[in-house]
Write a structure and sequence with these properties.
The complex is a heterodimer of chains A (114) and B (113).
Chain A: E1 4-7, E2 10-14, E3 19-25, E4 32-38, E5 45-51, E6 56-59, E7 62-67, E8 72-77, E9 86-93, E10 102-104, E11 108-113
Parallel strand pairs in A: 2-11
Antiparallel strand pairs in A: 1-3, 3-8, 4-5, 4-9, 6-7, 7-8, 9-10, 9-11
Chain B: E1 4-7, E2 10-13, E3 19-25, E4 31-38, E5 42-51, E6 54-57, E7 64-70, E8 73-78, E9 87-94, E10 103-104, E11 108-112
The chains are: A mainly beta (114), B mainly beta (113).
Chain lengths: 114, 113
C-alpha cells in the first residue's frame, strides 16, 4: 500500500519567516495530495490540495508544490503568523482507489514565535 | 464546519468491555471514514463506508467493526476494548463527486484502562 513520510516532525520559526514541510510518497500512481491543519484540540481541516496533473498551487500565503518524478510534495507558508501554529498533515490518495482513501503523514508541529 | 458530529466526545472504559462510537452527518455525504490519531502516527484509517451497508477495511482494522444502516450514521465498535485502543478517534465524510475532500468531526477521546 501507499506510504507517506513527512518531515520535519517539529518546526519552529519566527513570525514573518517562511516555513516548509516536505512529504514523500511511495506509490507512483498516487494522484491527489491534500494538506490538513489541526489546531490544538480541534479537528483537522483541509487548507490546500493539489492533483497530480499540476506542479504548483497557491492560495494567499500558502502554496504546495509537487514533484512527481521524485515522488515528493511540499507545503510552503510565507510571512508566518502566530495563528499558523498548529499540526500540519500531508496525505496522498493512491491511484486506482476511490472513496477518498487517504494515507496520512505523521504530522509536523509548527510553532511560530511572535 | 460541515454538519458532522461525534458522540461521545470523551469516554473512559475498562479492558474487555465493548464500546461503540457514533458519527452523525447531516450533509447527505455518501462516504464516511473512521480514523485513529496517535502521536507519531498521524491519522490512520480504520474502516470506511462507500454507501449504506457498504463498508471496507482500512490499514488498522483489527479489533474494530463498523456498521452503516443509514446514510447519516456510521458506527465504530470495539468488541472488546484493549489498552492499545486508547486513542483519539476521528470520523470524516465526503460527498459523491468530491470524495477526496474530507470533513472531520471533532473527535472522541477514548481511554481504555
Amino acid at each position: 500500500g501507499e506510504n507517506v513520510e513527512q518531515h520535519p516532525s517539529t518546526l519552529s520559526v519566527q513570525e514573518g519567516d517562511s516555513a516548509v514541510i516536505k512529504c514523500t510518497y511511495s506509490d507512483s500512481a498516487s494522484n491527489y495530495f491534500p494538506w490538513y491543519k489541526q489546531e490544538l484540540g480541534k479537528r483537522p481541516q483541509l487548507i490546500i490540495d493539489i492533483r497530480s496533473n499540476v506542479g504548483e498551487k497557491k492560495d494567499q500565503r500558502i502554496a504546495v508544490t509537487l514533484n512527481k518524478t521524485a515522488k515528493h510534495f511540499s507545503l510552503h507558508i510565507t510571512e508566518t503568523q502566530p495563528e499558523d501554529s498548529a499540526v500540519y498533515f500531508c496525505a496522498a490518495k493512491a491511484g486506482g482507489t476511490s472513496y477518498g482513501k487517504l494515507t496520512f503523514g505523521q504530522g509536523t508541529i509548527l510553532t511560530v514565535h511572535p | 464546519d460541515a454538519g458532522i458530529t461525534q458522540s461521545p466526545r470523551h469516554k473512559v472504559t475498562e479492558t474487555g468491555t465493548p464500546v461503540t462510537l457514533r458519527c452523525h452527518q447531516t450533509e447527505n455525504h455518501r462516504y464516511m471514514y473512521w480514523y485513529r490519531q496517535d502521536p507519531g502516527h498521524g491519522l490512520r484509517l480504520i474502516h470506511y463506508s462507500y454507501g449504506v451497508k457498504d463498508t471496507d477495511k482500512g490499514e488498522v482494522s483489527d479489533g474494530y467493526s463498523v456498521s452503516r444502516s443509514k446514510t447519516e450514521d456510521f458506527l465504530l465498535t470495539l468488541e472488546s476494548a484493549t489498552s492499545s485502543q486508547t486513542s483519539v478517534y476521528f470520523c470524516a465524510s465526503s460527498r459523491a463527486g468530491e470524495e477526496n475532500i474530507q470533513y472531520f468531526g471533532a473527535g472522541t477521546r477514548l481511554s481504555v484502562l
